[in-house]
Amino acid sequence: MIVAIDGPAGSGKSTTARRVAERLGWLYLDTGAMYRAVGLAFREQGLPVTEAAASGLVPGLDVRLEPGPGGTRVALDGDDVTDRIRTPEASRDASRVSALAPVRAAMVALQRRAAHDYVAAHPDGGVVVEGRDIGTVVFPGADVKFFLVADLDARARRRLADDAVGPASPDGPDAVAAALDQVRAELAERDRRDESRDVAPLKAAPDAVTLDTTALTIDQQVESVLDAVRRVR
Ligand code: C5P
Questions:
Q1: What is the spatial distance between Cα 149 and Cα 69, in angstroms, rounded to a whole number?
Q2: Are 29 and 3 in contact (CB under 8 A)?
Q3: Which of 18, 83, 92, 98 is the pocket-test mutation for ligand 1 (most atoms within 8 Å of CB)?
Q4: For residues 17 and 84, what is the distance between their CA atoms, to the nearest angstrom?
């Protein structure tokens, strides 16, 4: 069984997808982490964000997601890059390189293979896949599809509360407001780029359940997805 969870940054996808997978004992696939690793490879190699550069780079790249006790670890050519891909700069890089067709083709193939291999080895299990194009492109036949949304302000606040992503603990109300403005602007810019690209833009699949998480708790989000899984099982 495949559960697809898509939506913009900060909509609660990652936490929801990870917890649903934990509750079911299934595989969790964080596809954004893959695009982040590719973005890092472009930056490390000083490549321009072009299709030609992508065609040269991607076939030789080794991007791996390794589920671990503290969450998914991401390896790029054998190096653990988990911490380095969680910066605002890495978010921006990921969004830019993910618009390139050769990058998407390679990552989609990896995602399908990972899910296929897992289900082949765990016939009663399933995969919870999180991203932007999972229900539309990667697994259009997914058994359960969710599209998570939330107000920009709520999403920016969540990002800021996450130390690894937001600017380091701003001091005082003015600094908090300035940091919030910055995160809000970064999220809006990334959404705009993800929604407007030609290949696999961020959008809800026609058969996805749209869930507005602005006023929901994580538990409520997790329960909504688990209910949908129970209904189709
Ligand atoms: O989900 P996360 O914020 O880690 O994703 C980082 C970036 O990777 C997104 O802004 C988006 O541009 C890209 N992405 C994508 N398709 C996916 C997952 C992520 O284009 N399935």
A1: 28
A2: no
A3: 98
A4: 22
Structure tokens at 163: 């130390």
Atom 6 of ligand 1: nearest residue by CA position: 32
- Closest ligand 1 atom to residue 193 Cα is 12
pLDDT in tens, 74-128: 999 999 999 999 999 999 999 999 999 999 999 999 999 999 999 999 999 999 9
Please give the distance, rounded to the nearest whole angstrom, from the Cα atom of residue 174 to the centre of ligand 1: 30
Q: Ligand 1: distance of its center to the CA of 125 in Å?
A: 25
Residue 138 and residue 78: Cα distance in Å, rounded?
A: 25
pTM: 0.94
In this structure, the residue with its CA closest to atom 4 of ligand 1 is 32
Rounded-to-integer distance, Cα 20 and Cα 127, Å: 10
Dist CA 212 CA 107 (whole Å): 28
Q: Whose CA is nearest to atom 11 of ligand 1?
A: 95
H helices within 11-149, ranges in order? Answer: 13-24, 31-44, 51-57, 88-97, 101-121
Which residue has the least CA distance to atom 5 on ligand 1? Answer: 32
Compute, in angstroms, the gap from residue 62 CA to the centroid of ligand 1: 18
Give pLDDT tens digits for 104-116.
Answer: 999 999 999 999 9
C-alpha to C-alpha distances, 136 to 131, 146, 203, nearest whole angstrom? 10, 11, 8
Domains of the chain: 2-230 (3.40.50.300)
36 lines ligand 1 (CB under 6 A): yes
